[in-house]
Amino acid sequence: MLSTFLIAIYSLLVVLTVKSRREVMDSINQELYGASPDIKVSASSKRLIQVLQKVLASCIILPSDTDAFNASASNYFAQQSNTTRPACIVRPETVEQLSQAVAILHQEFLARRADGRDKPNNLGFVSLRSGGHSYSGASASIEGGVLLDLSRFSEVTVSNDGTLVTIGTGARWSRVNQVLEAKKIAVPGGRNGAVGVGGFTLGGGISFFSQRYGLACSNVIEYQVVLASGDVVIASATSNTKLWRALKGGANNFGIVTRFTFRAFPCGDIWGGCLFSPSFESSRSIDAFHAFVDRADPKKPDVEYDDYASGPLVCFCYLQRPGVEIISTFITYTKEPPSGSDWPACWKKSGFKSLWRYWSTVKQRTLSSACQDLAVGEKAGLSQTVAGTIVKNDKATLDAAYAFYREACVEVKKVKGKGIRFVFVLQPLLPAWMHKGDPNYLGLENTMTEPHVLISFSPVWIDVNHNEFVEDLIRRTVGKIERFARERGTYHPYKYVNYCAAWQDPFEGHGEENLEILRGVSREYDAEGFFQRACPGGFKIPGLEEGS
Ligand SMILES: Cc1cc2nc3c(=O)[nH]c(=O)nc-3n(C[C@H](O)[C@H](O)[C@H](O)COP(=O)(O)OP(=O)(O)OC[C@H]3O[C@@H](n4cnc5c(N)ncnc54)[C@H](O)[C@@H]3O)c2cc1C
C-alpha cells in the first residue's frame, strides 16, 4: 500500500518536473524561435545564443524576427544553402563586435570539446559568409548553428593617391567596380558583379586582369583578420608574414578577414563581350581556344601574347528542355582597343572571329558592364554546384573532355523533368599569372610552367530531386577526364578552391612542403583548431583533423 502511494507521488513529481522543464524550454523556444520552431537546435546551442544575445543584442537575428532572418538566411546563390537554416545569425557592424562574437564562439568550441558534449567529429556549429556565392552547398551555411553574416563589412575606400583600395569582405564586386570606375582605377576582382569580395579573394581570384597582375590574392598587400581567439591582427609583408602568404588561397582556414587592401591600377573602358554560337561550332571553338591559349606558352618566345587579352571563357551549355547546346564564348581586352569598338588585333586573328554566331555582345564598355554581361543567365536561388579540374592545354585532352561532357548530356537528356542546364567551361590558367604580385603557398610557380586549362562543370537545375543525379554525374565525368589526363600525362593535381566540389581536395596540388607550412600557420594562429572543426564549411587543410 505504502509502496503504491510512494510510486504515485514519485510519478506525480516526475510528471511535474518534466512538464515544468518542458515549459521552460518551450518559453525559451518561444522567445528565440517564435511560435512554431522547426529548426533543430541543441540545448548547448540555445545556451550559446542566449550568451550571444546578452553581449551582442544589436547584431543578433533570430528566427522569430522572420523577415530579417529569412532575408539573411536565404541570401545565397545556391538553393542548397538557401534551404539550410541556422539557429541564429550574427551580423556584426564593427570589427570589435565580430571579435567579441568569435571569442564567445571559440569559448563554446573549447567547452564542447572538453566536456564531450559533442562528438569530436561533430563540433561544427559555425559558418562564415561574405557574398554567399560559393557553389558548394555547405561552404558558408550551417544547419542549426550560428551564421556569421559579414555583409555589413562593405566599405570601399580609395587612398588619396589612388594606388590602394581597402575593401570590406562583405562587399560585392559590382559595387567595388562602380566606386573604382568613377576614379578610373581597378583592382583584379570578380568577373561576375554579384560575387562577394571575401570568398573570391581568399580562394585566389581569377579576374579579367590575371594575365597582367596575377591572381587577385597576389595583389592584396594587407588583410585585417579576426583570429580564433577574437584577437584582431594585420597580416602583411611586414607583419604576420606567413599568415599573409597563407591567406592567399587559404580560404577560411586561418581567421576571418574583415578587409583587404589591394594595389590598384589605372583602368578606363575595356573591350569585351559574349559570342553565342550553335553546337555545330563546338569543334572549331575548342580549336580556337587551344590555339589562343597555346600562344601564352613562355617556351615559345617567338609567339607574341598580348597581356591585355583575357579569356577566352568557352561555355558549352546543354539545355535539357529544348535538348540543344549553345556555346557562349566570353572574350575580353582589358584596355580600350586602339580602334574603338573594332576587335583588338589579338582576337581578330584568333579562330573566334570566324565562328558562326547567333549574336555577339562584344564592344567597348566599362568593367561593370562587362561583368554584368558575363552574369547574364546566372540566376540565384536555383540548385547549383561546381567541380573543376586542371589539365595541360593539350588538344587531345580537351577533345576527350568535351566528348565526356557530351556523354553526360546523353544521361541528362534521359532524366525525367526538363529543368537541367548542364554547363561545361574551358578557361585558361597561365604560367605568367603565377609569377605576378606577391608570393603564396599554392605551389604553382614551379609546376605551372606551361599554359593549363581549368575545366569546370557548373550545372544548374530546378528540381531538388535531381540533386543526387547531377552531383553523381559530374563526379563521374570529372573522374573520366582525370583518368584520361593522367594516362596522357596532362593532369595537374592543383584544384582551384573556388571551383571545387565538396568531394574534391583543393590542397592536393600544393605540395607537401607548402602544406606543412599551412599546417604550421594554422597551429600558430589557431592552436585548438577552431576554424578546422567549429567551422566545417569550405575546404579544410588535410592533416589537421582532431588528434592528428
Ligand atoms: C556566378 C558565379 C561567378 C563566379 N565567377 C568567378 C570568377 O570570375 N572568378 C573566380 O575566381 N571565381 C568566380 N566564382 C567563384 C567564387 O569566387 C567563389 O564561389 C567565392 O567563394 C565566392 O565568394 P563569396 O564571398 O561570394 O562566397 P561565400 O559563400 O560567402 O564564401 C565562400 C567561402 O569563403 C569563406 N569566407 C567568406 N568570407 C570570408 C572571410 N571574410 N574570412 C574567412 N573566410 C571567408 C566562407 O566561409 C566560404 O567557405 C564565381 C561564382 C559564381 C557563383
UniProtKB/TrEMBL annotation:
<dbReference type="Pfam" id="PF01565">
    <property type="entry name" value="FAD_binding_4"/>
</dbReference>
<dbReference type="InterPro" id="IPR016166">
    <property type="entry name" value="FAD-bd_PCMH"/>
</dbReference>
<dbReference type="GO" id="GO:0016491">
    <property type="term" value="F:oxidoreductase activity"/>
</dbReference>
<feature type="domain" description="FAD-binding PCMH-type">
    <location>
        <begin position="82"/>
        <end position="267"/>
    </location>
</feature>
<feature type="signal peptide">
    <location>
        <begin position="1"/>
        <end position="20"/>
    </location>
</feature>
<dbReference type="GO" id="GO:0071949">
    <property type="term" value="F:FAD binding"/>
</dbReference>
<dbReference type="InterPro" id="IPR006094">
    <property type="entry name" value="Oxid_FAD_bind_N"/>
</dbReference>
<keyword id="KW-0732">Signal</keyword>
<dbReference type="InterPro" id="IPR050416">
    <property type="entry name" value="FAD-linked_Oxidoreductase"/>
</dbReference>
<comment type="similarity">
    <text>Belongs to the oxygen-dependent FAD-linked oxidoreductase family.</text>
</comment>
<protein>
    <submittedName>
        <fullName>FAD-binding domain-containing protein</fullName>
    </submittedName>
</protein>
<dbReference type="InterPro" id="IPR036318">
    <property type="entry name" value="FAD-bd_PCMH-like_sf"/>
</dbReference>
<dbReference type="InterPro" id="IPR016169">
    <property type="entry name" value="FAD-bd_PCMH_sub2"/>
</dbReference>
<keyword id="KW-0285">Flavoprotein</keyword>
<keyword id="KW-0274">FAD</keyword>
<keyword id="KW-0560">Oxidoreductase</keyword>
